[in-house]
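name: query_chain
kind: protein
chains: 1
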Amino acid sequence: MRPTPLALGTAAGVAAAALLAIPAADSVRDLRAARTARATLAQLAAGPGPARGIVIDGDATPARDAGAAADRLAVRLRTSAIRSGLLLEVATPVPSDGLARVQLTVSGSEDAVVGFADMLERSRPLARFVTWRMTAAGGAVTLSGDVVGPWQ
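structure:
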């Protein structure tokens, strides 16, 4: 039995399709990579998105500028020191770029001073000692240092 011309043409078409499938798959893969690269470049060309803060909401002191934030931080430190039963010697806002900064000196019993420092470091909005020093004089302990906090 002789193959018909239709059968020969069909067999040749199937063979050609099979041979062309490999280069076609490579072309589709290259096209996908090119589209991904184009999308990445378009995103980079659009520029950065809106600026995001480095602290989460509620961790920064709300204020219009660093001076106002330092004043609010000083008030917070004064209030917390008095509530902790400490003698507040110094709570002075210091001009600073970026973070709100306050020079602080408090004194009292060792337990009260350590508790105050712990409460300050754990509470929100954030406030951290950049420099600090504890000294003992008689029955009292004095804590002095610079406290900073973010503002927005």
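note: The first helix runs from residue 5 to 45.
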